[in-house]
TrEMBL record:
One GO CC term on file: cytosol
GO biological process: diaminopimelate biosynthetic process; lysine biosynthetic process via diaminopimelate
Species: Halanaerobium polyolivorans
Membrane spanning residue stretches: none
Catalytic activity field: (S)-2,3,4,5-tetrahydrodipicolinate + NADP(+) + H2O = (2S,4S)-4-hydroxy-2,3,4,5-tetrahydrodipicolinate + NADPH + H(+); (S)-2,3,4,5-tetrahydrodipicolinate + NAD(+) + H2O = (2S,4S)-4-hydroxy-2,3,4,5-tetrahydrodipicolinate + NADH + H(+)
Primary gene name: dapB
Protein name per UniProt: 4-hydroxy-tetrahydrodipicolinate reductase
Subunit structure and binding partners: Homotetramer.
Entry keyword annotation includes NADP: yes
Domain Dihydrodipicolinate reductase C-terminal: 101-213
Family of this protein: Belongs to the DapB family.
Length: 215
């Protein structure tokens, strides 16, 4: 496939280009803070940039009318409204975490929540590399949104950690911890590749990575 990346020069942009090139896909469009370069019109766009770049991403998708795979975090309700608007015309796959493990963990969180009552404490902890700009992580927000109460979230920024998430459920006398740790960015880029390879066959609409994994 011929694809484009927004956030091309970033950590994820570089890791995506490496995996996609190994899989035989061709980068024909790239955009970062320094500008854009288009060799030819891409079949789809992959966005792993920053929230500040989101208005530009919306503009690019509107102009090109091509599908979007987006993993950028920090997006708010207004941004999701825009994603829904784009999804009326093109397929959009959005997830704050493209790893298989976190998507299984999110199923488990919902399952545990069905067993416990208000007497249980629930807290989420996330650890990422020192360069990560947003806090709490998109994944921590996504996990807390699965539970119908306010959850305390704890963020650490340490060295080069790729991404660790823990969800604690505790009552007097016991604690249950669900934990996921990414050992490399491959944890995410493999999910991005799977999404990109499937998106060209999808009808317009807003899809999650879980939709892609389970269909
Ligand atoms: N959903 C998931 O599975 C995952 C999501 N992420 C998310 O992906 C995003 C990128 O992470 P990471 O690669 O580590 O971040 P980086 O800071 O390394 O990269 C950000 C990229 O965005 C570009 N950028 C910044 N502002 C603009 C702008 N206004 N217009 C166009 N491009 C812009 C930067 O360009 P320049 O270098 O020129 O400044 C850079 O290429 C983050 O939101 C992160 O949370 C990360 C991992 C997994
Ligand atoms: O910035 C990162 O690196 C990551 N960001 C995502 C998030 O905010 O949840 C996903 C992953 O944990 C890595």
């Amino acid at each position: 496939m011929k694809y484009g990346i927004i956030g091309y020069s970033g950590r994820m942009g570089e890791a995506i280009e490496k995996l996609f090139s190994q899989a035989g896909h061709e980068l024909v469009y790239q955009k970062d803070e320094n500008g854009e370069k288009e060799i030819e019109k891409p079949e789809l766009i992959i966005d792993f940039s920053l929230k500040e770049a989101f208005p530009e991403t919306v503009k690019v998708i509107k102009e090109k009318e091509i599908p979007l795979v987006i993993g950028t975090t920090g997006l708010d309700e207004a941004d999701f409204k825009q994603l829904n608007q784009l999804a009326e015309k093109v397929a959009v796959i959005q997830s704050f975490n493209f790893s298989i493990g976190i998507n299984i963990l999110s199923e488990l969180v919902s399952k545990v929540d069905n067993y416990i009552d208000q007497d249980w404490d629930i807290e989420i902890s996330e650890t990422h590399h020192r360069f990560k700009k947003d806090k709490p992580s998109g994944t921590a927000i996504m996990l807390s949104d699965l539970i119908d109460r306010d959850i305390d979230m704890h963020s650490k920024r340490l060295g080069s950690e790729f991404g660790e998430h823990e969800v604690y459920f505790a009552s007097t006398g016991e604690v249950l911890t669900l934990k996921h740790r990414a050992y490399s960015r491959e944890a995410f880029t493999k999910g991005v590749l799977l999404s990109a390879e499937k998106i060209l066959d999808l009808n317009p609409g807003l899809y999650s990575f879980k939709d892609i994994l389970t269909n």
